[in-house]
Amino acid sequence: MDVKRAKQILSSSADIDVTFEGTSVWIDELHEDEKMATVHLRGPLEERTQVAIKDLTEEKE
């Protein structure tokens, strides 16, 4: 994923399915200078981690 699309998803009110290494995640915050994003798993766990934006994938229906 590129930074521009990640920003669009973060600011969207739609529920857009994003995955990291095959696991569904929410994007919490973008760190454009480092090209990183803070994400957490969808579901009951709130553990956050930083990943490279390029490693995020938007799942198409």
UniProtKB/TrEMBL annotation:
One of its GO terms (cellular component) is endospore-forming forespore. Keywords: Sporulation. Signal peptide: none annotated. Induction: Expressed only in the forespore compartment of sporulating cells. InterPro entries: SASP_SspH. Its main location: other. One of its GO terms (biological process) is asexual sporulation. It is found in: Spore core. Belongs to the SspH family. This is Small, acid-soluble spore protein H.
